[in-house]
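Hi R.,

Here's the input for the FE2/S2 (inorganic) cluster complex you asked about:
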Amino acid sequence: MANVYVDEEKVEVEDGSSIQEACESLGIPFSCKEGVCGSCLVNVSEGAENLGELNDEEIAFGLDGKDIRLACQCKITGGDVKVESAY
Ligand code: FES
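And here is the predicted structure with FE2/S2 (inorganic) cluster in place:
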C-alpha cells in the first residue's frame, strides 16, 4: 500500500494507482480530470520519487520535473507522497 498526504491527513491507495481519488477526498480541487485545465496542479513536498514518470498530458501542460504534478494524471508507485495544492 502507498499513502497520499495532504496537510496531516492521509489516504491509503494501492501501489501503482492514480492519486486522483485520494487527493480529491483530501480537498485538492479538480475540474477536467483529463490533464488540460490545471486545476489539480500540486506541489509535491515529499516523496516525488514515489510518483511515476510524467505522462504525455503533463508534458503537454509544460511540466518538466517531479516536484509539480497534475494530480489527475500521476500514479504512485509505492511509499508516501505529500502534496499541496499549487494555488
Ligand atoms: S483536473 Fe484538469 S488537469 Fe487535472
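One thing worth noting: The first helix runs from residue 20 to 25.

Cheers,
M.
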